[in-house]
């Protein structure tokens, strides 16, 4: 059984179905990738799983360990192990990096924060005393956010475009964090437009127009990329019978 | 209470161990109500203080070219529940000198205490002067803090002043600082205040950049909970070539609290430039959602965001050994 089941979820925003009868399962301890053109509904799916304000009125159901998440607020979902890394992380004026990283962690020590930072390739001595504000570059902030996720020890991590705005070297560090999550048995969802990131997944989903077009191994789903199926103009949409 | 005990109590209230207070190289002045209860000076620093009916009138002078390595420690306090303390302060930082002050204003038991400060501050040409004032108030909200300052920052001088009231109840704060900044001077004026229950905070910060290439930054970071109220009037004028100014006003409002901000920026020279940044309202939703997604509930997340905003120190105060 999957750790998280999305079952026939339809979510309307401004009356438009952004997620449209979407069903997919996440398997425990696996790294999943979700690809799909701009506007496919990938970030919306992440927000809906997280239960963010504005994304709670959906038809269908989302089950964590077989239990419905309907009506469960964001912080409670997080306490049950679900968390989200934003494509554009928030800035917190004046908030020290250490306080931010350990905000959701049981272990609030400097050592714990330092370890998480090191995994992301950020020198603790240089960063722990700084603030999570505009003085950090976009890429640094993204890595600090991932450090906060490592520190909280989650069960399911949704990463929305972890590679956007990230240089090659920093991407290696993000993959390092990914490896650590996988070793700990954490379930990961990588939302991405990058083949390099897709390659790190065990399994992939192709989304378009709020529905699942296909799923399977990374080779197969990556094929849509390589065949320039994306951005999807619906001409190359796989025939229904091709999707098992 | 003996003078010694008063000093000990004052120090304890601000978190300093009275048995090992300061080294001989640290200048200090301690004022309780209208008595100077402790004073220690170092070369380069002169202080004359007269006790008045309801406070003191003091003249503090840093001599020309003097460099005071460690911050001068000043403590103003009223230990009883009631009282009026009126401080008249003339601060004269002579040219080419360097000095800093770490001031504490402590009213730990206040139920009806009024603390009025009237200060004249002159920072001489090319002098560097940094002032940090931390308020330690008790839980009752019975303090009225009314500081007024007229400041002149001379050519090439640097002055930073910071007011912090985070622990305890603000009570009523009305402060009014006005600075004139001459050529190539740098001014930094910062207030960080935490208001709750029925606290009232009124801030008037004004800077006039009248000299060529003068720079000024006015910063007010305020958090308001319950039915606290705040009004912030930041005025920054620039009428000299290449003057640069920035106003930063952030107020986070929670519950029934009310915040008002009236920024005035006025530029009267084509090569002067003033920017203004303001955010007034509830906690930023992206910040909140990020922390909720780490498992903090809404109240914990709000507290952490406010803690961050209020702890943003200046270059000077971040070097101080403050708890
Ligand atoms: N609050 C909203 N109200 C109305 N429409 C919205 C809202 N949020 C998103 N949408 C629409 O939903 C669709 C899906 O958006 P979403 O951000 O989930 O796409 P995405 O797959 O993450 O795309 P990208 O690759 O560009 O990040 C888009 O057409 C978008 O315009
Ligand atoms: Mg997106």
**Cα separation of the termini of chain B:** 28 Å
Chains forming the largest contact: A-B, 30 and 25 residues
Distance between the termini of chain A: 18 Å
In what order do the strands lie side by side in the largest sheet of chain B? 2-1-5-7-9-11-13-15-17-19
How would you spell out the order of helices and strands of chain A?
EEEHEEHEHHHHEHEHEEH
Counted beta strands of chain B? 19
Strand content of chain B: over 45%
Total count of strands of chain A = 10
* Main sheet strand line-up of chain A: 6-7-8-3-9-10
Q: Provide the number of structural domains of chain B.
A: 1
Average pLDDT of chain A works out at 92
**Radius of gyration of chain A (Å):** 18 Å
Report the radius of gyration of chain B as a whole number of Å: 20 Å
Structure in words:
The complex is a heterodimer of chains A (244) and B (323). With 244 residues, chain A is α/β, with parallel strands linked by helices. Chain A has 9 helices and 10 strands. Chain A has a 6-stranded mixed β-sheet with strand order 6-7-8-3-9-10, with helices on both faces. Chain A has a 4-stranded antiparallel β-sheet with strand order 2-1-4-5, covered by helices on one side. In chain A, β7, α7 and β8 form a beta-alpha-beta unit. With 323 residues, chain B is mainly beta. Chain B has one domain (3-315). Helix content of chain B is 10%, strand content 54%. Chain B is built from 3 helices and 19 strands. The mean pLDDT of chain B is 94. The interface between A and B is medium-sized, with 30 and 25 residues.
